[in-house]
Write a structure and sequence with these properties.
Elements: E1 2-5, E2 40-46, E3 57-62, H1 65-69, E4 73-82, H2 87-95, E5 139-142, E6 152-155, E7 160-167, E8 174-177, E9 183-188, E10 191-198, E11 200-203, E12 208-214, E13 220-227, E14 233-240, E15 280-290, E16 293-297, E17 308-309, E18 315-322, E19 328-332, E20 337-342, E21 345-346, E22 351-352, E23 354-357, E24 362-368, E25 373-379, H3 382-386, E26 390-395
Parallel strand pairs: 4-7, 6-14, 15-18, 17-26
Antiparallel strand pairs: 1-2, 2-3, 4-5, 7-12, 8-11, 8-13, 9-10, 9-12, 13-14, 15-16, 18-24, 19-23, 19-25, 20-21, 20-22, 20-24, 25-26
Length: 396
């Protein structure tokens, strides 16, 4: 199946079979889709089993007339994590060979095991550290290449470049780092934001980031994507025509920090939701552990989910609490939401379809129930989703 990530068609055209609207594409089958595209930097990927880890992904960029008229060089960068091992072998390594369909064992209701018999209900958080990087990968790719042989994107002198960065990795979060070059954030997840400037930005799985980079006499601008918690990095190189391009190492000098909410705290939507009181607040809790490797929402791993039930026409606030030691990029199909609360602090944040909920943290998002159906809501870490961290929002 191909899911049109960031688009908002009717449920039968969303490209998933888990909800029962449609069956997977059979070998040799051709299927047509017909919906109005949503402008912005989006992507498409298989939503069937573990195929996304096999790089069955592609950018899906929808341009406006203003985009096409702009005097800006447009560059799309697709990030991946790559392993020579099969996705099935990776999942078996993670789960210790236990069943890997959406039928992993359920966590005990009184708290979730963190290994060694420790339970979340009474743990000393100061003695625990965040879990990062479930999978040991062989390479990290930017447009299918490593920094040993990166894509070199030639520009005019003093050019303006719109970078459309898409994190299509199965389970890896990156920091986008332009070193000493400042860029302007134009959009996240295909939605325009009030511009802010910086040179280092977090990017979790499924998220997108549009940056405006001005060469301003710079001959070479490396655009690094470094893995959180590691020295490993990939990237592309912006280089003025005729400029010599030095070699860049695939290992940074220092390890990166965990991806955080430092960018999220600064963002505000250029076109926020219309002002309206919340009609319904729905709470959901992300749960799970590395040992045993099993993840769920509300202690109900897929397919034994507890649906989040709302009503058509409502303004809905979804409160997501993370009761685990790992951050989760949470994605809602068929809608774009506004980030409204980060760890208890209110804000008029960005419009998104995927938001990071930090370890032991909480995030609230609001959206209008204007696309009735059954819509998946899940962690976009593929292996968290495959071991149960998925439910559905249901209305209409």
């Amino acid at each position: 199946m191909v899911h049109w990530h960031g688009q908002t068609p009717d449920p039968a055209q969303d490209g998933v079979s888990d909800t029962g609207y449609v069956s997977p594409l059979t070998p040799g089958e051709r299927r047509s889709y017909d919906f109005s595209p949503r402008a912005g930097t989006h992507w498409m990927h298989s939503h069937h089993a573990l195929q996304k880890q096999a790089l069955l992904t592609a950018p899906l960029v929808v341009y406006t007339a203003e985009d096409e008229a702009a005097d800006v060089q447009d560059v799309t960068v697709l990030l991946h994590d790559f392993a020579f091992r099969s996705p099935e072998e990776i999942l078996s390594e993670l789960t210790g060979g236990q069943s890997a369909g959406h039928d992993m064992h359920q966590q005990p209701a009184g708290g979730m095991s963190m290994g060694g018999g420790m339970m979340m209900g009474g743990m000393d958080h100061s003695m625990m550290s965040m879990d990062l990087n479930d999978v040991r990968y062989d390479a990290f790719l930017a447009n299918d290449r490593t920094l040993d042989d990166p894509e070199i994107i030639r520009t005019e002198a003093n050019a303006k470049v719109r970078l459309r960065l898409i994190n299509a990795a199965a389970s890896t979060s990156f920091w986008i780092n332009l070193e000493d070059v400042e860029a302007t954030v134009l959009a996240v997840d295909g939605n325009a934001v009030e511009p802010i400037r910086g040179h280092r930005f977090p990017l979790a799985p499924a998220q997108r980031l549009d940056l405006l980079v001005e060469m301003k006499g710079k001959a070479v601008v490396p655009v690094f994507a470094q893995v959180e918690g590691l020295q490993d990095r990939t990237g592309v190189i912006l280089a003025a025509n005729g400029a010599d391009v030095p070699k860049f190492s695939s290992k940074a000098e220092q390890q990166e920090a965990p991806v955080d909410l430092s960018l999220e705290e600064q963002l505000s939507a250029a076109s926020p939701l219309p002002s309206k009181p919340t009609d319904r607040t729905v709470q959901t809790m992300a749960m799970g552990s590395m040992d045993p490797y099993a993840w769920n929402l509300d202690n109900a791993p897929w397919p034994n989910r507890t649906p989040l039930k709302i009503a058509e026409g409502e303004r809905v606030t979804l409160e997501i609490m993370n009761h685990s030691m790992m951050a989760h990029p949470m994605h809602l199909h068929g809608h774009h939401f506004q980030v409204t609360v980060l760890n208890g602090r209110r804000l008029n944040g960005a419009m998104r379809d995927t938001v990071v909920v930090p370890a032991m943290g909480s995030v609230s998002v609001s959206f209008d129930a204007d696309n009735p159906g059954r819509w998946l809501f899940h962690c976009h870490n593929l292996y968290h989703m495959m071991t149960g961290m998925m439910t559905e929002v249901v209305y209409g």
